[in-house]
Design a protein that fits this description.
single chain; alpha/beta; inorganic pyrophosphatase (n-terminal core); Diaminopimelate Epimerase, Chain A, domain 1; 2 domains; six-stranded parallel beta sheet; six-stranded mixed beta sheet; 12 strands; 39% helix; 18% strand; globular; binds manganese (II) ion
Length: 345
């Protein structure tokens, strides 16, 4: 389990920060996913057992399929309770930033965390952390999830004996969702050793899987069917699939946050497809989810053209153009990637 080697100096610094009971705030990125919320809540349980007083703050709402996570009801949503967030941050002695590496990822909460005069610790697996964002940075892009990284870190800190069932199930969920249920190439033998450790601590794999994947509303499935049938465009020349969802369609299918989660992956399940992209209209903005297979990087497209970023095979972006104009802008970019999209790899 201790196969992951961290800088002993950083571990020492962090141990020193955690030596005395502290008021700690844990936060994560806007629109928290399974890994973001799982790492935050799992860490909350561990640090609480170690004697600290913890608040988890989220910049915006998380999808309801994560409601089952122990502690989720106590996470403070900045959009709903900005004042409460300001108060806990004002009293905080230490801030952990999990599953993001750039203050812009907390969106409207950015001003609250960049002005703080307390130690900040980053634990994250996205590429290119913003230099100097946090005082101590544990940035490991090769690791498939922040939850996996955090368990390795807890072992190095000698805090892993505090991982109880509640913490273990939060971490398990984050690893499962960020690895596409253990099938992405980021999964290693080390990932499975962490999973074994979490199951020994009581994590129920069947329970977690059911909570996350078998709690769809019928509207979500109807919307999925509609999107696949009506708004999926296969661009064979570019080995690319495009999905789109307009605000009107979302209203028609009673869209709830998280309902479009996973739609984009259906594109990659088509033979030979290298890239799949979902464009969804929200609050006068087009949100974009990019996915790819193999060496083709969607991170660069997201960064260069759509004010976004992420990983090589999974990235996000946005556009202030209309849905149609955004689709056209994207399609116009494809010829310049044609060779790369047709390369065998
Ligand atoms: Mn993650």
């Amino acid at each position: 389990m201790t196969e992951h080697v961290f800088s002993s100096e950083k571990i020492r610094q962090l141990q020193e920060l955690l030596h005395q009971p502290k008021k700690i705030v844990i936060t994560t990125h806007h629109k928290p996913d399974g890994d973001a919320l799982g790492s935050s809540l799992g860490f909350l349980h561990v640090l609480a057992k170690a004697g600290h007083s913890i608040s988890v703050v989220v910049p915006s709402e998380f999808p309801s399929f994560l409601d089952w996570m122990n502690g989720s009801g106590d996470a403070i949503d900045f959009r709903k309770h900005p004042h409460k967030v300001k108060v806990v941050l004002k009293n905080a002695e230490l801030l952990f930033c999990l599953d993001f590496n750039d203050p812009s990822r907390v969106e409207k909460m950015q001003a609250e965390i960049t002005g703080l005069d307390i130690p900040m610790v980053l634990v994250d697996h996205h590429l290119d952390p913003k230099p100097g964002f946090c005082n101590i940075q544990f940035s490991y892009p090769a690791i498939g999830s922040t939850c996996e990284l955090l368990v390795h870190l807890l072992v190095a800190l000698n805090l892993d004996h505090h991982i109880d069932r509640n913490a273990a199930e939060c971490f398990y969920a984050g690893i499962m969702t960020d690895t596409g249920s253990f099938r992405f190439n980021s999964v290693t033998a080390g990932t499975h050793r962490v999973i074994a450790r979490l199951m020994e601590a009581g994590a129920r794999n069947y329970f977690i899987h059911e909570q996350i994947y078998d709690t769809n509303s019928s509207w979500k499935l109807k919307f999925l069917g509609f999107t696949l049938h009506e708004h999926m465009e296969v661009l064979e020349e570019f080995n690319t699939v495009i999905f789109s969802a307009s605000q009107a369609d979302m209203d028609r299918f009673h869209h709830e946050p998280g309902d479009l989660e996973g739609v984009v992956n259906y594109g990659l399940s088509i033979n030979k497809i290298k890239m799949a992209v979902l464009f969804s209209e929200r609050d006068n903005l087009v949100k974009i989810s990019f996915r790819s297979k193999g060496s083709f990087s969607v991170k660069d497209i997201a960064e260069k053209y759509f004010e976004g970023g992420g990983h090589r095979n999974a990235a996000g972006g946005r556009s202030e153009l209309s849905l149609l104009d955004t689709l056209n802008k994207f399609k116009a970019l494809l010829p310049s990637y044609k060779d790369e999209l047709n390369r065998e790899s």
